[in-house]
């Protein structure tokens, strides 16, 4: 074979060098595999290593102090709670005729702020807590305000309505604030810590802090804070206005005390003068004080108390219209009756409601008479009937005299039943003179009011009708008149045995702002009628007509 044939190049075929390497490689790998290895099966060690997670290299820091962590959590809770309160934005609620917005705000001193835009605001030191109550008076609702103008009788329920509105608004605000505080603190803690447990702990801590703040506000609540507000803005001139109002109250207090003093002094002077009629009531004489139409004038109680003390009154008879609108808010005006120390007989007037009547029935010294009911007080038997109409303002249409006559007829029927039962009535009481006139011939004396001036007459069948003026001088509404209405009351002297009228004193005092007083004594002229009895010492002094007092004694 030639030498050139041995040097021929090797072709890259499967049977060449590459093919031999491919065939030899599995054998080499087979020598490296462990015994018992099956082709296509990976060792367990290889699988385990591949499953191990890749770890990152972290730098180790020392753990924070527990106090630092607590302070940080508290800061997150407070910030989250504050953001939650801001997100709530308060509660809008109507309070009477006003639209208001109530909200809780963080504060170092607490208290209550009432914003009356654009006039300014006033602050009340109502409580000490880290929460302040903000009340914004947005506007006066024209529809609800006009309804009060058109229907003044709704004022009687305004107090309850306002209390209900404030209570409902405060309840809604409390619930929404709790949700806002807990939600805000929880959400912020979840963002900062990214751990649900820390977030729930922050929400619980926020709720605990809110409950503690509410408990602190309740414990330090000061209801008298409304008497000492701090004004700002245009309302800063309010203290001068309030001061003027307080001076009016103090001046009125001086006025009513001055009237009571005048009653005392004039009575003493009257008893000492030589021009009095010869009639002098002895200590056993029954003395009845007749008052009527007080109409919420607080000065009346000072006058009545002075008369009860000076004259030794046995019983007070009130022929109605003690109130002005008969609302529950006015009931506190009646409380001085309990301090008079004598029985107080009362009948309902057209300005007195059933609410007024029920309030008086709970007083121990008050005898409320209605539908002809009779009681014996102070040694005299008295029966009465309440006014069938309740007309405190023009919004209620009055039924007029027919309703009064029907009430008077029912009253007369009750008086007849009393007389047939052997317990005749000595004095009948009705508010309206129309009703009182129906008792003619059934009682010696009937008392009435309503018309705000005095009248005395003997009716055809012999009953004496005495109509009293306003013991309250027409009430506080009398300031609207050109001239103040005078204050009037009468003392009736009754024989203790026969219960017949022997004489009476008429007390007349100056109206609001007028400190004048006069007293005059009167004797019955008619004899032999149901309204009169024998008059002791009927002889009048020289120059004075029989049955009539001498010149009226005015105050200095």
TrEMBL record:
SUPFAM superfamilies: Metallo-dependent phosphatases. This is Metallophosphoesterase. It comes from Streptomyces liangshanensis. GO terms for cellular component: membrane. Residues 540-556 have a biased composition (Low complexity). Keywords: Hydrolase, Membrane, Metal-binding, Transmembrane, Transmembrane helix. Residues 30-41, 48-59 have a biased composition (Basic residues). Residues 286-453 form the Calcineurin-like phosphoesterase domain.
